[in-house]
Specification:
Radius of gyration of chain A: 22 Å
Strand content of chain A: 25-35%
Helix content of chain B: 55-70%
Order of helices and strands of chain B: HHHHHHHHHHHHHHHH
Shape of chain B: globular
Radius of gyration of chain B: 21 Å
Strand content of chain B: under 5%
Structural class of chain B: mainly alpha
Distance between the termini of chain B: 27 Å
Shape of chain A: globular
Oligomer: heterodimer
Number of helices of chain A: 10
Number of helices of chain B: 16
């Protein structure tokens, strides 16, 4: 995902032309009229989407999918590149009580030429302050966006035999892949093995069934865990006999993904398994907490051992680079100038001089970040 | 000698000073907890208003040869520049709005509409001035390196000309600000690495080029045959902004009652005494809502110095609490009308162009600087 560019960087690196080269040169000339601002700083006041300085989008539709989940259809503004790959995620920020809060969500829409909207599907988590806020957004709300990112993508051309192993809202990036395959009309041999508590909890159920009717090579296996119990990956062959022969994309809760990694590793075919972790288990070990100093601004914050350095910075108005916010993309990596921090996933500590990921690290005593 | 023992000067016990510090910490906590949607809406509205005024000014000046359009366009543009520098630029660069986590309204990304690069300002103002406020020899804003504004500064024959320097600084204020972080005093004493000076000059040059081209070449040229009238309008707008900014800023620390401090005081001070120095070293002026807005809420200079990074729209309510605190501890809360505060400032600048032997008061009991030898009245 993008690092939030400073205005200075924005000035130096010309943003890609939103509508062709002529407009770009017009904007470059117009900067002589608006300096030290950009033309976009004026234009976005007329229409929030008329700015490529920061990526924005407008909610154009909110589609309820299940009792807890809704799809947000978003029209991105200038500067958005629709050339994303199915399976990638975006950053989205909404303003709550005056403050912008960022999260990452997989795109559930399939990239296609001529499209002018994207979609993410959000499940309101009981303890998730932002997810419930997102699902109750009004049409017309302006959100901030960060460019699509991620390696959990369908290759081009797709392999001949595919297994999608998903649970809950882990279906969303796979849905983008299925929609892409469906649109091309040439679906390879695909098995989707999806777990959800009940039928009513299965996302996109009607659309999946319609896809199955349209392409007989697409097999759907629903695992309703309230009725059938959790999927046992040691007995995966009962459901998908040829699973080991399939290139597999798996997305779901950490326990399922850990089990999948063990199963694939046991067969010595780890390279055939692609995993996307949309939630990160930060229970590894708490840091001790302490005073965090952000070197460039000199700002200091006292935090507990459970708050990530990224959250600590953002809660105190320090703009830090970030990406996935779950420890996978390395966008948030900054040098640790002093002290030590703890990786909340593994409990491992990092010392002065290490480069650390702020999104999954917490203070282990007082520390200074070189950012 | 300016104030060395702030405790003796204020006649406060250590317990009092700690209690004052705790109370001020409490005010900060309350405001930080209260910041929310209404504050965010305030700054967004201020930005929208400023950009609308700027656009209106530029567009109106396409008829700049028509005198009423010249006047209206110049007025819009002057207001736009004043609001941008005072309520937006100065305050946003202080980080007053960083809590919003908005990359477009943030101290790390804001570049303001003046010849001084934001990065230089952050050093000379946010760091040097706000940390060393009124410490003679440390705070370069005590006379900006060209004026003697307290008799703690040694007189030099060059000071005879300071009524003139001051008038020039008023007219050319943005240029003074642009060069301020170069620290001419340090360059004169050869204490500054010429490489650093050169690097800064290049940065200033880049900013100046864009600012000057915009106001004095591009916009005038776009209005074709009205080149000259647009040019004079833009120059006037910059001048109006210079005069206003100079007046507001000079009223912050130069009126009577804004005390000066010695290096010794600074070196021995506690965080609570830091608060006290900010309070005793700053001066407010009375302003209605409009004037407060146009001054960037620097009519609440005392509150700004206590809490430089709290949102400016909250200074009025903070002011009520600070004033109440000052009354309870019998501390001065220096304020007055803008005219009076500015008149005192001018008087000091003119008067101090003379050597001390023509002056009756000393550094212990002068209007612009006192010491613990003439302390405040005892607290009740």
């Amino acid at each position: 995902m993008i690092r939030l560019p400073s205005r200075r960087e924005a000035r130096m690196t010309e943003t890609p032309a939103p509508h062709g080269g002529r407009l770009a040169s017009a904007r470059r000339l117009a900067r002589w009229l608006t300096t030290p601002l950009l033309p976009d700083d004026y234009l976005h006041l007329l229409n929030p989407l008329w700015s490529s300085r920061e990526l924005r989008g407008r909610i154009v539709d909110v589609v309820p999918e299940t009792a807890q989940a809704s799809t947000l259809v978003i029209k991105p503004g200038w500067g958005w590149n629709f050339d994303y790959r199915p399976g990638q995620y975006v950053g989205i920020a909404v303003q709550v009580d005056g403050r912008w809060h960022w999260r990452s969500y997989s795109l559930s829409s399939a990239p296609s030429r001529g499209q002018d909207t994207i979609a993410i599907t959000v499940k309101a988590m009981p303890e998730g302050f932002l997810s419930s806020h997102l699902t109750s957004l009004q049409v017309g709300t302006v959100v901030r966006l960060a460019a699509p990112k991620g390696d959990f993508v369908l290759p081009e051309p797709p392999p001949d035999k595919i297994l999608f192993l998903t649970a809950g809202s882990g279906l969303t990036p796979v849905m983008a892949m299925l929609r892409t395959l469906d649109r091309r009309g040439r679906t390879p041999d695909v098995v989707l093995l999806h777990s959800a508590p009940t039928e009513a909890d299965v996302l996109f159920r009607a659309e999946l069934q319609a896809m199955h009717r349209a392409h007989e090579s697409l097999v759907l296996i629903e695992r309703l865990t309230d009725r059938d119990g959790m999927l046992d990956l040691d007995r995966l062959a009962d459901a998908v006999p040829d699973w080991a022969a399939r290139e597999t994309w798996a997305c779901g809760p950490p326990a399922m993904l850990d089990a999948a990694e063990r199963a694939w590793k046991a067969r010595g075919i780890s390279d055939r398994l692609h995993v996307e972790r949309f939630s990160v288990d930060l229970a590894g070990a708490g840091g001790e907490g302490g005073t965090v100093t952000f070197g460039n601004s000199g700002k200091t914050v006292t935090v507990d051992g459970a708050t990530t350095l990224l959250e600590a910075g953002e809660q105190n108005g320090v703009l830090l680079p970030f990406g996935c916010r779950m420890g996978i993309c390395q966008t948030c990596v900054v040098p640790l100038a002093k002290g030590s921090v703890r990786d909340l996933r593994s409990g491992q500590t990092h010392q002065e001089g290490d480069r650390i990921q702020t999104c999954i690290s917490a203070a282990a005593g007082d520390c200074v970040l070189d950012v | 000698m300016a104030i060395t023992d702030i405790r003796a000067y204020a006649h406060l016990t250590d317990e009092d000073i700690d209690a004052i510090g705790a109370e001020l910490d409490g005010i900060r906590k309350d405001i930080e907890a209260a910041r929310g949607e209404a504050d965010a809406a305030y700054i967004r509205r201020a930005i929208a208003l400023q950009r609308a005024l700027a656009a209106a000014g530029r567009i109106t000046l396409f008829a700049s040869s028509f005198p009423p359009a010249w006047v209206a366009g110049t007025a819009f543009l002057s207001l736009a520049k004043i609001i941008e520098n005072m309520e937006l630029g100065h305050n946003i660069i202080h980080g007053q709005w960083d809590w919003m986590n908005d990359p477009e309204i943030h101290s790390t990304s804001w570049e303001w509409d003046t010849t001084c690069p934001s990065a230089h300002w952050k050093h000379s103002h946010n760091f040097v001035h706000h940390k060393f406020t009124n410490v003679v020899g440390k705070d370069n804003d005590v006379g900006y390196g060209i004026l003697r504004v307290t008799r703690d500064q040694k007189w030099h024959p060059v000071n005879l000309g300071q009524p003139v320097y001051n008038a020039l600084l008023m007219l050319l204020f943005e240029w003074g600000v642009a060069l301020h972080d170069l620290d001419l005093e340090k360059i004169r004493r050869r204490e500054k690495d010429p490489k650093q000076t050169w690097k800064q000059l290049k940065e200033i040059g880049r900013k100046v080029r864009r600012q000057v081209l915009k106001d004095y070449v591009v916009y005038p040229a776009l209005t074709g045959p009205q080149f000259l009238s647009t040019l004079t309008a833009n120059a006037t707008a910059n001048l109006v902004r210079n005069l206003w900014a100079d007046a507001v800023i000079f009223c912050g620390h130069f009126p009577d009652g804004a005390e000066k401090f010695t290096l010794e005081e600074f070196e021995n001070e506690t965080p609570q005494q830091w608060y006290l120095r900010q309070m005793l070293g700053s001066a407010n002026f009375r302003a209605g809502r409009l004037m407060a807005f146009l001054s960037g809420n620097l009519c609440y200079q005392i509150e700004h110095h206590l809490f430089p990074d709290l949102p400016s729209n909250r200074y009025a309510e903070i002011g009520e609490r600070v004033r109440d605190l000052c009354e309870r501890y019998r501390l001065p809360y220096t304020t007055g009308s803008l005219a009076r505060q500015y008149a005192e400032t001018l008087r000091t600048i003119w008067k101090l162009s003379l050597p001390d032997r023509f002056l009756t008061r000393t550094t212990d009991d002068a209007p612009e600087t006192r010491s613990e030898r003439f302390p405040l009245p005892v607290a009740a």
